[in-house]
Amino acid sequence: MELQTAPSEEPEFEEEPQEVSLSRAFGGQSILRDLFETLVLTLIIFFVVNALTGRFQVRGSSMEPSLHSGQYLIVSKLSYRLGEPQRGDIVVFEPPNGTGEDYIKRIIGLPGERVEARDGAIWINGYRLEEPYVASPVPYTGSWQLGPDEYFVLGDNRANSSDSHSWGPLPAKN
Question: How far is CA 12 from CA 9, 17, 52, 145, in A?
Fold first, then answer.
């Protein structure tokens, strides 16, 4: 008869932890490459956004109640390269009176139109313009015939705005 012995129950030992360098754990230069790629991508996005948009701050009350002094706007630089300005668009431009400061106004009259300010309202080619964004009646009178490359721009706060009613039509190039 043969005696069988029970298998020995020796405790199993795990391998001792080894130190692993970051470069070996993450594939060598991987971290530096990832950081570099992230930085390059961030810079590309920054320059593209700056090339396609402009940031402006509203100064003054000429566009109230639509825009208020201190508000910031992000404006597309491509809009009018892809299409023509439309009545009602709010635009940022350099005024023809050369103040060196950008103005923010609303397009009211389009090239070739006749704009009139009378009876507390704006009239385009003899038709009264509905302007729900204006809080008070137009306090001035006048009549302007726009040329083929001119726009008529007004602030929404008609009583407190330096705009086309005071310095005339805005050339399209502005």
Answer: 9, 15, 65, 97
**What is the Cα–Cα distance from 164 to 153, expressed in whole angstroms?**
5
Nearest to 149 by CA among 96, 99, 102, 101: 96
Q: Read off the pTM.
A: 0.75
Query: Tens digit of pLDDT for each residue in 152-168?
Result: 999 999 999 999 999 99
Instruction: Given the residues 62, 76, 136, 143, select the one marked as catalytic.
Output: 62
Say how far apart CA 143 and CA 152 lie, in whole Å.
Answer: 11
DSSP 100: S
| Residue 99 pLDDT | 73
Give the CATH architecture of domain 82-171: Ribbon (2.10)
How far is the C-alpha of 109 from the C-alpha of 174, rounded, in Å? 15
pLDDT of residue 135: 86
Per domain, the residue ranges of the chain are: 82-171
Tokens of 140: 């001035």
In the annotation, is 105 catalytic? yes
Establish whether 62 is a catalytic residue: yes
pLDDT at 24 over 80: no
